[in-house]
Design goal:
Elements: H1 9-24, H2 29-33, H3 38-49, H4 56-70, H5 76-95, H6 104-125, H7 131-163
Length: 164
């Protein structure tokens, strides 16, 4: 666990940029429906591991960045990531008591909250979104969480070893 180490802002930004690139890779319609929310999982990973350095305000700013890229109603993803970040901070102590393979039990509800906020804002804005595009990424992201969190931890440990 890297929660006890100080990770540089550059490392966090680099992993967020990599997750955004993976998220923006075009996919055919079939696989695109169930594309995991890599950027969201990365934000939640940093909120869980570095809550004093990457808390609600950085999560909100990351969401504003995604809103600008996707052209969605301003602050839609920002609000969703801030709410999901808050939920992650609240379950953080429990998260570390679970083995990595069981953490999706706690992360799936947070991802559901994130998608529900997006769903609600889209409904208020009058946007029609296919429910499959909204809820399948929750399942795929929860299933992929152990591998993604493991990869993120390995990347972060490179910096920890470099500074020790």
């Amino acid at each position: 666990m890297i929660a006890g180490y100080r990770i540089s802002a550059l490392m966090m930004i680099a992993t967020l940029a990599a997750a955004l690139v993976v998220t923006l890779i075009p996919l055919p319609d079939g696989p695109a429906i169930a594309r995991p929310a890599f950027f969201t999982m990365t934000v939640l990973f940093w909120v869980a591991n570095q809550p004093y350095r990457f808390g609600l305000i950085p999560a909100w700013m990351a969401g504003l960045f995604v809103d600008a890229i996707y052209g969605t109603p301003l602050a839609e993803h920002a609000l969703a990531l801030a709410v999901a970040g808050y939920c992650t901070i609240k379950i953080r102590a429990w998260l570390w008591n679970f083995p990595l393979i069981q953490q999706p039990i706690l992360i799936a509800p947070v991802l559901l909250v994130y998608e529900f906020v997006l769903f609600w804002i889209d409904g208020v804005a009058g946007l029609d979104v296919d429910p499959w595009y909204r809820w399948l990424p929750v399942a795929s992201s929860a299933v992929l969480w152990p591998a993604w969190a493991y990869l993120m931890e390995r990347v972060a440990r490179i910096e920890v070893r470099r500074h020790n």
